[in-house]
Amino acid sequence: MKFRKACAVLLAVVGFIGCGDDGESSSATLPPLLSLAARRGADPGIFDSRGRQVLLRGVNLNSLGDYYQDNPRLPPVLPWSEEDFAQMAALGFNVVRLVLSWSALEPERGSWNQAYVQEIRRAVDSAKRAGVYVVLDMHQDAWGKFIATPPGVDCGPSRERAIGWDGAPQWATLTDGRSTCRSPGVRELSPAVSQAFENFYADRDGIQSAFVSTWSRLVAAFAQEPAVAGYDLFNEPHWGNNIVAATPKLATFYARLIPAIRAAERAAGGFPHIVFFEPLILWPVGDSAPDPAAIVDDNVVFAPHNYAESITGFNSLTIEQAFEQARHDAARYGTTFWIGEYGWFADPPRNQERLLRYATLEDTLFIGGAWWQWKQACGDPHSIGVPGREPPPLLIHLRYTECPGDVDHGWVPEWVQVLSRPYPRATPGRVARFRSDPLQWEMDLEGTADAPGEADLWIPDRSGLRPVVAGAGVQRVRLVPVAGGYRAFVSVRGTYNIQVRWTR
Q: To the nearest 5 percent, what fractions of the chain are helix, strand and coil?
Protein backbone atom coordinates (compact mmCIF):
# COMPACT_ATOMS: atom_id res chain seq x y z
CA MET A 1 0.00 0.00 0.00
CA LYS A 2 1.34 3.46 -0.87
CA PHE A 3 2.36 5.54 2.14
CA ARG A 4 1.12 8.66 0.36
CA LYS A 5 -2.31 7.10 -0.27
CA ALA A 6 -2.77 6.00 3.34
CA CYS A 7 -1.73 9.40 4.67
CA ALA A 8 -4.09 11.16 2.28
CA VAL A 9 -6.94 9.11 3.71
CA LEU A 10 -5.89 9.97 7.26
CA LEU A 11 -5.50 13.68 6.58
CA ALA A 12 -8.90 13.83 4.93
CA VAL A 13 -10.64 12.75 8.12
CA VAL A 14 -8.29 13.62 10.97
CA GLY A 15 -6.44 16.84 10.33
CA PHE A 16 -3.96 16.52 13.19
CA ILE A 17 -2.28 13.38 11.83
CA GLY A 18 0.77 14.24 9.75
CA CYS A 19 2.23 12.19 6.96
CA GLY A 20 5.97 12.61 7.25
CA ASP A 21 7.98 11.10 4.39
CA ASP A 22 6.39 11.14 0.94
CA GLY A 23 7.51 7.84 -0.56
CA GLU A 24 6.72 4.20 -0.11
CA SER A 25 5.94 2.81 3.31
CA SER A 26 8.79 0.81 4.75
CA SER A 27 6.44 -1.98 5.80
CA ALA A 28 8.55 -4.47 3.83
CA THR A 29 11.27 -4.02 6.49
CA LEU A 30 8.90 -4.77 9.37
CA PRO A 31 9.22 -8.07 11.26
CA PRO A 32 6.52 -10.74 10.88
CA LEU A 33 3.92 -11.34 13.57
CA LEU A 34 5.18 -13.80 16.18
CA SER A 35 3.03 -16.35 17.97
CA LEU A 36 1.61 -15.21 21.31
CA ALA A 37 0.92 -16.90 24.62
CA ALA A 38 -0.32 -15.83 28.04
CA ARG A 39 1.37 -16.55 31.34
CA ARG A 40 -0.30 -16.95 34.70
CA GLY A 41 1.24 -16.42 38.11
CA ALA A 42 2.61 -13.56 40.16
CA ASP A 43 3.65 -11.58 37.07
CA PRO A 44 1.08 -12.42 34.39
CA GLY A 45 0.87 -11.02 30.88
CA ILE A 46 0.78 -11.72 27.14
CA PHE A 47 4.14 -12.58 25.56
CA ASP A 48 5.47 -13.27 22.08
CA SER A 49 7.76 -16.15 21.10
CA ARG A 50 10.81 -13.92 21.80
CA GLY A 51 9.66 -13.53 25.40
CA ARG A 52 8.62 -9.88 25.05
CA GLN A 53 5.58 -8.55 26.86
CA VAL A 54 2.90 -7.58 24.33
CA LEU A 55 0.11 -5.01 24.40
CA LEU A 56 -2.83 -5.82 22.10
CA ARG A 57 -4.73 -2.65 21.24
CA GLY A 58 -7.28 -2.41 18.48
CA VAL A 59 -10.89 -2.63 17.45
CA ASN A 60 -13.83 -4.97 16.82
CA LEU A 61 -14.94 -5.76 13.27
CA ASN A 62 -18.36 -7.37 12.75
CA SER A 63 -18.38 -7.66 8.96
CA LEU A 64 -18.37 -11.49 9.17
CA GLY A 65 -21.14 -11.64 11.77
CA ASP A 66 -24.38 -13.35 10.75
CA TYR A 67 -26.89 -10.78 12.03
CA TYR A 68 -30.66 -10.56 11.85
CA GLN A 69 -31.95 -8.26 9.12
CA ASP A 70 -35.08 -6.41 10.13
CA ASN A 71 -35.30 -4.05 7.16
CA PRO A 72 -34.81 -5.66 3.72
CA ARG A 73 -33.48 -2.31 2.42
CA LEU A 74 -30.73 -2.14 5.05
CA PRO A 75 -28.00 -4.81 5.23
CA PRO A 76 -27.04 -5.60 8.83
CA VAL A 77 -23.27 -5.52 8.24
CA LEU A 78 -20.82 -3.68 6.01
CA PRO A 79 -18.35 -5.73 3.95
CA TRP A 80 -14.68 -5.75 4.92
CA SER A 81 -11.79 -5.05 2.57
CA GLU A 82 -7.99 -5.13 2.57
CA GLU A 83 -8.12 -1.38 3.13
CA ASP A 84 -9.86 -1.84 6.50
CA PHE A 85 -6.87 -3.64 8.00
CA ALA A 86 -4.38 -1.25 6.37
CA GLN A 87 -6.25 1.67 7.95
CA MET A 88 -6.33 -0.08 11.33
CA ALA A 89 -2.56 -0.39 11.16
CA ALA A 90 -2.32 3.29 10.13
CA LEU A 91 -4.04 4.17 13.41
CA GLY A 92 -1.50 2.10 15.31
CA PHE A 93 -3.80 -0.84 16.03
CA ASN A 94 -2.16 -4.25 16.25
CA VAL A 95 -5.22 -6.41 16.90
CA VAL A 96 -8.75 -6.88 15.60
CA ARG A 97 -11.42 -8.83 17.43
CA LEU A 98 -13.13 -10.54 14.51
CA VAL A 99 -16.82 -11.26 15.11
CA LEU A 100 -17.87 -14.75 13.92
CA SER A 101 -21.19 -16.59 14.12
CA TRP A 102 -22.03 -20.20 14.96
CA SER A 103 -25.09 -19.88 12.70
CA ALA A 104 -22.80 -19.23 9.72
CA LEU A 105 -20.32 -21.97 10.59
CA GLU A 106 -22.97 -24.68 11.10
CA PRO A 107 -26.24 -23.48 9.54
CA GLU A 108 -27.62 -27.03 9.46
CA ARG A 109 -26.82 -29.52 12.18
CA GLY A 110 -23.69 -31.46 11.32
CA SER A 111 -22.89 -29.25 8.33
CA TRP A 112 -19.71 -27.23 7.94
CA ASN A 113 -19.63 -24.01 5.94
CA GLN A 114 -16.23 -24.25 4.31
CA ALA A 115 -16.84 -21.11 2.24
CA TYR A 116 -17.34 -19.13 5.48
CA VAL A 117 -14.13 -20.56 6.95
CA GLN A 118 -12.30 -19.54 3.78
CA GLU A 119 -13.67 -16.01 4.18
CA ILE A 120 -12.37 -15.97 7.76
CA ARG A 121 -9.02 -17.15 6.42
CA ARG A 122 -8.95 -14.34 3.86
CA ALA A 123 -9.63 -11.80 6.61
CA VAL A 124 -6.90 -13.27 8.82
CA ASP A 125 -4.42 -13.21 5.94
CA SER A 126 -5.32 -9.60 5.15
CA ALA A 127 -4.89 -8.56 8.78
CA LYS A 128 -1.58 -10.43 8.90
CA ARG A 129 -0.26 -8.52 5.88
CA ALA A 130 -1.08 -5.29 7.72
CA GLY A 131 0.74 -6.44 10.88
CA VAL A 132 -2.52 -6.88 12.82
CA TYR A 133 -3.25 -9.88 15.05
CA VAL A 134 -6.73 -11.46 15.05
CA VAL A 135 -8.80 -12.64 18.02
CA LEU A 136 -11.42 -15.07 16.70
CA ASP A 137 -14.57 -14.12 18.60
CA MET A 138 -17.49 -16.57 18.71
CA HIS A 139 -20.07 -13.85 19.04
CA GLN A 140 -23.67 -13.91 20.19
CA ASP A 141 -26.16 -11.35 21.38
CA ALA A 142 -29.49 -12.39 22.93
CA TRP A 143 -28.76 -15.94 21.70
CA GLY A 144 -29.30 -15.43 17.97
CA LYS A 145 -31.24 -14.40 14.89
CA PHE A 146 -34.17 -16.69 15.56
CA ILE A 147 -35.67 -15.17 18.72
CA ALA A 148 -37.30 -12.21 17.02
CA THR A 149 -40.93 -11.64 17.98
CA PRO A 150 -43.11 -13.03 15.16
CA PRO A 151 -45.40 -10.64 13.23
CA GLY A 152 -48.82 -10.18 14.80
CA VAL A 153 -47.76 -10.95 18.38
CA ASP A 154 -49.06 -8.38 20.87
CA CYS A 155 -46.63 -7.94 23.76
CA GLY A 156 -49.00 -5.89 25.91
CA PRO A 157 -48.45 -2.56 27.68
CA SER A 158 -45.39 -3.48 29.79
CA ARG A 159 -43.37 -5.46 27.24
CA GLU A 160 -42.08 -4.78 23.73
CA ARG A 161 -41.50 -6.78 20.58
CA ALA A 162 -37.92 -8.06 20.20
CA ILE A 163 -35.66 -7.79 17.20
CA GLY A 164 -33.44 -10.75 16.32
CA TRP A 165 -29.70 -10.60 16.91
CA ASP A 166 -26.81 -12.99 16.17
CA GLY A 167 -25.23 -16.20 17.39
CA ALA A 168 -26.80 -19.65 17.38
CA PRO A 169 -28.33 -21.42 14.37
CA GLN A 170 -32.05 -22.07 14.28
CA TRP A 171 -31.70 -25.78 15.01
CA ALA A 172 -29.90 -24.92 18.30
CA THR A 173 -32.49 -22.33 19.36
CA LEU A 174 -34.59 -24.22 21.91
CA THR A 175 -36.99 -21.85 23.67
CA ASP A 176 -39.74 -24.32 24.68
CA GLY A 177 -42.31 -21.88 23.32
CA ARG A 178 -41.58 -19.15 25.82
CA SER A 179 -42.41 -15.56 24.96
CA THR A 180 -40.04 -13.56 22.80
CA CYS A 181 -41.39 -10.27 24.19
CA ARG A 182 -38.85 -8.44 26.29
CA SER A 183 -38.54 -5.76 28.93
CA PRO A 184 -38.29 -2.39 27.13
CA GLY A 185 -34.79 -1.62 25.91
CA VAL A 186 -33.11 -4.78 27.27
CA ARG A 187 -32.57 -7.51 24.69
CA GLU A 188 -31.49 -10.09 27.30
CA LEU A 189 -34.71 -9.78 29.33
CA SER A 190 -36.82 -12.10 27.22
CA PRO A 191 -38.12 -15.47 28.51
CA ALA A 192 -37.21 -17.07 25.18
CA VAL A 193 -33.60 -15.86 25.42
CA SER A 194 -33.31 -17.09 29.01
CA GLN A 195 -34.68 -20.52 28.10
CA ALA A 196 -32.38 -20.87 25.09
CA PHE A 197 -29.37 -20.34 27.32
CA GLU A 198 -30.73 -22.65 30.00
CA ASN A 199 -31.06 -25.43 27.45
CA PHE A 200 -27.56 -24.73 26.16
CA TYR A 201 -25.98 -25.03 29.61
CA ALA A 202 -27.94 -28.26 30.16
CA ASP A 203 -26.73 -29.60 26.76
CA ARG A 204 -30.32 -30.23 25.77
CA ASP A 205 -30.41 -32.33 22.58
CA GLY A 206 -26.61 -32.12 22.52
CA ILE A 207 -26.51 -28.46 21.43
CA GLN A 208 -23.61 -27.56 23.72
CA SER A 209 -21.73 -30.60 22.45
CA ALA A 210 -22.31 -29.38 18.90
CA PHE A 211 -20.97 -25.94 19.83
CA VAL A 212 -17.82 -27.49 21.32
CA SER A 213 -17.38 -29.52 18.14
CA THR A 214 -17.78 -26.40 15.99
CA TRP A 215 -15.10 -24.60 17.99
CA SER A 216 -12.80 -27.62 17.63
CA ARG A 217 -13.18 -27.63 13.84
CA LEU A 218 -12.55 -23.91 13.62
CA VAL A 219 -9.47 -24.17 15.85
CA ALA A 220 -8.07 -26.96 13.67
CA ALA A 221 -8.23 -24.61 10.67
CA PHE A 222 -6.08 -21.97 12.43
CA ALA A 223 -4.01 -24.09 14.81
CA GLN A 224 -0.73 -23.28 13.04
CA GLU A 225 -1.44 -19.57 12.42
CA PRO A 226 0.72 -17.12 14.46
CA ALA A 227 -1.39 -14.14 13.33
CA VAL A 228 -4.31 -15.56 15.33
CA ALA A 229 -3.68 -14.23 18.83
CA GLY A 230 -6.32 -16.50 20.29
CA TYR A 231 -9.96 -17.42 20.73
CA ASP A 232 -12.69 -15.47 22.54
CA LEU A 233 -14.82 -18.41 23.64
CA PHE A 234 -18.32 -16.97 23.95
CA ASN A 235 -19.38 -13.34 23.79
CA GLU A 236 -21.34 -11.99 26.78
CA PRO A 237 -22.75 -15.24 28.22
CA HIS A 238 -26.30 -14.96 29.56
CA TRP A 239 -27.34 -16.29 32.96
CA GLY A 240 -30.25 -18.43 31.73
CA ASN A 241 -33.22 -18.78 34.06
CA ASN A 242 -31.33 -18.64 37.35
CA ILE A 243 -28.77 -15.94 38.13
CA VAL A 244 -27.54 -17.73 41.27
CA ALA A 245 -26.82 -20.99 39.44
CA ALA A 246 -25.45 -19.38 36.27
CA THR A 247 -21.79 -18.94 37.19
CA PRO A 248 -21.23 -22.62 38.05
CA LYS A 249 -22.88 -23.58 34.74
CA LEU A 250 -20.63 -21.22 32.84
CA ALA A 251 -17.58 -22.62 34.67
CA THR A 252 -18.60 -26.18 33.78
CA PHE A 253 -18.98 -25.16 30.14
CA TYR A 254 -15.51 -23.56 30.05
CA ALA A 255 -13.98 -26.58 31.80
CA ARG A 256 -15.30 -28.67 28.92
CA LEU A 257 -14.57 -26.32 26.02
CA ILE A 258 -10.96 -25.31 26.78
CA PRO A 259 -9.56 -28.89 26.85
CA ALA A 260 -11.44 -29.63 23.61
CA ILE A 261 -9.72 -26.64 21.98
CA ARG A 262 -6.31 -27.85 23.15
CA ALA A 263 -7.00 -31.33 21.81
CA ALA A 264 -7.98 -29.85 18.43
CA GLU A 265 -4.75 -27.82 18.30
CA ARG A 266 -2.63 -30.89 19.03
CA ALA A 267 -4.47 -33.03 16.49
CA ALA A 268 -3.91 -30.36 13.81
CA GLY A 269 -0.17 -30.15 14.57
CA GLY A 270 -0.55 -26.60 15.87
CA PHE A 271 0.45 -24.73 19.00
CA PRO A 272 -1.58 -23.44 21.96
CA HIS A 273 -3.20 -20.06 21.32
CA ILE A 274 -4.51 -17.72 24.00
CA VAL A 275 -7.98 -18.48 25.32
CA PHE A 276 -9.89 -15.29 26.14
CA PHE A 277 -12.71 -16.14 28.54
CA GLU A 278 -15.52 -13.81 29.55
CA PRO A 279 -17.67 -13.46 32.66
CA LEU A 280 -21.45 -13.36 32.51
CA ILE A 281 -22.92 -10.34 30.77
CA LEU A 282 -23.93 -9.11 34.25
CA TRP A 283 -20.27 -8.31 35.00
CA PRO A 284 -19.04 -6.35 36.91
CA VAL A 285 -22.14 -6.70 39.08
CA GLY A 286 -22.43 -9.58 41.53
CA ASP A 287 -20.79 -13.00 41.30
CA SER A 288 -20.51 -13.06 37.52
CA ALA A 289 -16.99 -14.45 36.95
CA PRO A 290 -16.62 -18.25 36.82
CA ASP A 291 -14.92 -20.21 39.59
CA PRO A 292 -11.13 -20.08 39.16
CA ALA A 293 -10.97 -23.81 39.91
CA ALA A 294 -12.60 -24.45 36.52
CA ILE A 295 -9.89 -22.56 34.61
CA VAL A 296 -6.85 -24.83 34.87
CA ASP A 297 -5.18 -23.97 31.55
CA ASP A 298 -2.12 -21.71 31.81
CA ASN A 299 -2.59 -19.92 28.47
CA VAL A 300 -5.67 -17.87 29.32
CA VAL A 301 -6.69 -14.22 29.67
CA PHE A 302 -9.70 -12.80 31.48
CA ALA A 303 -11.66 -10.73 28.94
CA PRO A 304 -14.54 -8.65 30.37
CA HIS A 305 -16.23 -5.72 28.65
CA ASN A 306 -15.97 -2.27 30.21
CA TYR A 307 -18.80 0.10 29.28
CA ALA A 308 -18.71 2.04 32.55
CA GLU A 309 -19.98 5.61 32.06
CA SER A 310 -21.06 4.64 28.55
CA ILE A 311 -23.94 2.15 28.21
CA THR A 312 -27.03 2.30 30.41
CA GLY A 313 -26.72 -0.41 33.04
CA PHE A 314 -23.02 0.27 33.54
CA ASN A 315 -23.63 3.90 34.48
CA SER A 316 -23.82 3.15 38.19
CA LEU A 317 -20.09 2.37 38.07
CA THR A 318 -17.22 4.69 37.33
CA ILE A 319 -14.55 3.77 34.81
CA GLU A 320 -12.13 3.47 37.72
CA GLN A 321 -14.41 1.07 39.61
CA ALA A 322 -14.85 -1.20 36.59
CA PHE A 323 -11.09 -1.35 36.00
CA GLU A 324 -10.53 -2.17 39.66
CA GLN A 325 -13.07 -5.00 39.43
CA ALA A 326 -11.33 -6.35 36.32
CA ARG A 327 -7.96 -6.19 38.06
CA HIS A 328 -9.39 -7.94 41.13
CA ASP A 329 -11.06 -10.72 39.13
CA ALA A 330 -8.00 -11.32 36.93
CA ALA A 331 -5.89 -11.64 40.08
CA ARG A 332 -8.19 -14.43 41.28
CA TYR A 333 -7.21 -16.39 38.17
CA GLY A 334 -3.57 -15.33 38.27
CA THR A 335 -3.99 -13.91 34.77
CA THR A 336 -3.80 -10.57 33.06
CA PHE A 337 -6.97 -9.09 31.61
CA TRP A 338 -7.91 -7.69 28.22
CA ILE A 339 -11.00 -5.57 27.56
CA GLY A 340 -12.77 -7.23 24.63
CA GLU A 341 -15.19 -4.33 24.18
CA TYR A 342 -15.42 -0.70 25.28
CA GLY A 343 -16.44 2.55 23.64
CA TRP A 344 -18.71 5.57 23.50
CA PHE A 345 -21.44 6.20 20.94
CA ALA A 346 -22.54 9.80 21.36
CA ASP A 347 -21.28 13.34 21.97
CA PRO A 348 -17.54 12.88 21.23
CA PRO A 349 -16.45 16.33 22.54
CA ARG A 350 -17.97 15.58 25.94
CA ASN A 351 -17.11 11.88 26.10
CA GLN A 352 -13.47 12.37 25.11
CA GLU A 353 -12.82 13.35 28.73
CA ARG A 354 -14.09 9.93 29.79
CA LEU A 355 -11.98 8.23 27.15
CA LEU A 356 -8.92 10.12 28.40
CA ARG A 357 -9.53 8.75 31.90
CA TYR A 358 -9.99 5.29 30.44
CA ALA A 359 -6.71 5.60 28.51
CA THR A 360 -4.80 6.66 31.62
CA LEU A 361 -5.94 3.54 33.49
CA GLU A 362 -5.26 1.31 30.50
CA ASP A 363 -1.67 2.59 30.38
CA THR A 364 -1.12 2.50 34.14
CA LEU A 365 -2.29 -1.13 34.32
CA PHE A 366 -0.45 -1.99 31.08
CA ILE A 367 -3.39 -3.74 29.44
CA GLY A 368 -5.01 -3.66 26.02
CA GLY A 369 -8.45 -3.95 24.52
CA ALA A 370 -10.64 -3.56 21.45
CA TRP A 371 -12.92 -0.60 20.75
CA TRP A 372 -16.52 -1.41 19.75
CA GLN A 373 -16.55 -1.04 16.78
CA TRP A 374 -14.81 -0.25 13.46
CA LYS A 375 -17.94 0.54 11.44
CA GLN A 376 -21.64 -0.17 11.92
CA ALA A 377 -24.27 -0.68 9.26
CA CYS A 378 -27.55 1.23 9.29
CA GLY A 379 -29.33 -2.14 9.30
CA ASP A 380 -27.38 -3.55 12.26
CA PRO A 381 -29.72 -4.65 15.09
CA HIS A 382 -27.87 -2.18 17.30
CA SER A 383 -28.96 0.57 14.87
CA ILE A 384 -32.59 -0.59 14.53
CA GLY A 385 -33.29 -1.53 18.15
CA VAL A 386 -36.88 -2.76 17.82
CA PRO A 387 -38.78 -4.24 14.86
CA GLY A 388 -39.76 -1.67 12.24
CA ARG A 389 -37.72 1.22 13.58
CA GLU A 390 -35.58 3.33 11.28
CA PRO A 391 -31.93 3.86 12.23
CA PRO A 392 -30.82 7.26 13.52
CA PRO A 393 -29.48 9.67 10.89
CA LEU A 394 -25.91 9.40 12.20
CA LEU A 395 -24.14 6.45 13.83
CA ILE A 396 -21.12 7.21 16.00
CA HIS A 397 -18.61 4.42 16.41
CA LEU A 398 -14.94 4.64 15.52
CA ARG A 399 -16.27 6.08 12.27
CA TYR A 400 -19.27 8.26 11.49
CA THR A 401 -21.92 6.55 9.34
CA GLU A 402 -24.84 8.47 7.81
CA CYS A 403 -28.16 6.62 7.50
CA PRO A 404 -29.78 5.43 5.39
CA GLY A 405 -27.25 4.50 2.78
CA ASP A 406 -24.27 3.60 5.02
CA VAL A 407 -22.42 6.75 3.97
CA ASP A 408 -18.96 6.74 5.54
CA HIS A 409 -17.90 10.12 6.98
CA GLY A 410 -14.56 8.94 8.36
CA TRP A 411 -13.09 8.56 11.81
CA VAL A 412 -14.29 10.41 14.89
CA PRO A 413 -11.34 12.75 15.64
CA GLU A 414 -11.89 12.76 19.41
CA TRP A 415 -11.65 8.95 19.52
CA VAL A 416 -8.69 8.66 17.13
CA GLN A 417 -6.64 11.27 18.96
CA VAL A 418 -6.69 9.11 22.10
CA LEU A 419 -6.67 5.64 20.56
CA SER A 420 -3.71 6.44 18.26
CA ARG A 421 -1.43 7.54 21.09
CA PRO A 422 2.07 5.97 21.29
CA TYR A 423 2.44 2.59 22.97
CA PRO A 424 4.84 -0.38 23.05
CA ARG A 425 3.62 -3.24 20.87
CA ALA A 426 6.27 -5.49 22.43
CA THR A 427 8.68 -4.88 25.30
CA PRO A 428 11.72 -6.88 26.52
CA GLY A 429 11.79 -8.01 30.12
CA ARG A 430 9.21 -6.58 32.46
CA VAL A 431 7.58 -3.16 32.38
CA ALA A 432 7.78 -1.13 35.59
CA ARG A 433 5.95 2.00 34.44
CA PHE A 434 4.24 3.23 31.30
CA ARG A 435 2.76 6.63 30.51
CA SER A 436 1.43 7.90 27.18
CA ASP A 437 0.11 11.43 26.63
CA PRO A 438 -2.90 11.23 24.26
CA LEU A 439 -2.84 14.98 23.59
CA GLN A 440 0.88 15.54 22.97
CA TRP A 441 1.59 11.96 21.82
CA GLU A 442 4.63 11.68 24.09
CA MET A 443 5.54 8.48 25.88
CA ASP A 444 7.65 7.23 28.80
CA LEU A 445 8.38 3.55 29.32
CA GLU A 446 10.47 2.05 32.13
CA GLY A 447 11.46 -1.58 32.41
CA THR A 448 14.16 -4.13 33.10
CA ALA A 449 15.59 -6.64 30.63
CA ASP A 450 18.14 -9.16 31.93
CA ALA A 451 19.29 -9.94 28.39
CA PRO A 452 19.58 -7.67 25.35
CA GLY A 453 16.23 -7.15 23.65
CA GLU A 454 14.35 -4.93 21.24
CA ALA A 455 11.24 -2.94 22.05
CA ASP A 456 8.75 -2.35 19.23
CA LEU A 457 6.92 0.97 19.59
CA TRP A 458 4.03 2.54 17.69
CA ILE A 459 4.37 6.32 17.28
CA PRO A 460 1.70 8.32 15.40
CA ASP A 461 2.80 11.02 12.96
CA ARG A 462 2.44 14.70 13.90
CA SER A 463 2.45 17.05 10.95
CA GLY A 464 5.69 19.05 10.68
CA LEU A 465 7.35 17.24 13.61
CA ARG A 466 9.67 14.26 13.88
CA PRO A 467 9.80 11.87 16.83
CA VAL A 468 12.92 11.64 18.96
CA VAL A 469 13.34 8.28 20.71
CA ALA A 470 16.00 8.17 23.42
CA GLY A 471 16.60 7.36 27.07
CA ALA A 472 18.71 5.53 29.65
CA GLY A 473 19.75 1.99 28.76
CA VAL A 474 18.92 2.59 25.09
CA GLN A 475 21.64 1.17 22.82
CA ARG A 476 20.19 1.65 19.35
CA VAL A 477 17.07 3.09 17.71
CA ARG A 478 15.76 2.20 14.26
CA LEU A 479 12.88 4.45 13.16
CA VAL A 480 10.77 3.05 10.32
CA PRO A 481 8.16 5.30 8.61
CA VAL A 482 4.86 3.49 8.06
CA ALA A 483 1.40 4.62 7.01
CA GLY A 484 0.09 6.96 9.70
CA GLY A 485 3.26 7.15 11.75
CA TYR A 486 6.37 5.21 12.73
CA ARG A 487 7.51 1.94 14.18
CA ALA A 488 10.51 2.42 16.46
CA PHE A 489 12.72 -0.59 17.18
CA VAL A 490 14.73 0.18 20.32
CA SER A 491 17.57 -2.05 21.56
CA VAL A 492 17.79 -2.09 25.36
CA ARG A 493 19.43 -3.98 28.18
CA GLY A 494 19.28 -3.82 31.96
CA THR A 495 17.17 -1.12 33.57
CA TYR A 496 15.97 1.19 30.84
CA ASN A 497 13.82 4.22 30.22
CA ILE A 498 12.52 4.97 26.72
CA GLN A 499 11.16 8.44 25.96
CA VAL A 500 9.32 9.66 22.89
CA ARG A 501 9.43 13.39 22.31
CA TRP A 502 9.09 15.62 19.22
CA THR A 503 11.27 18.08 17.35
CA ARG A 504 10.97 20.16 14.17
A: 30, 25, 45
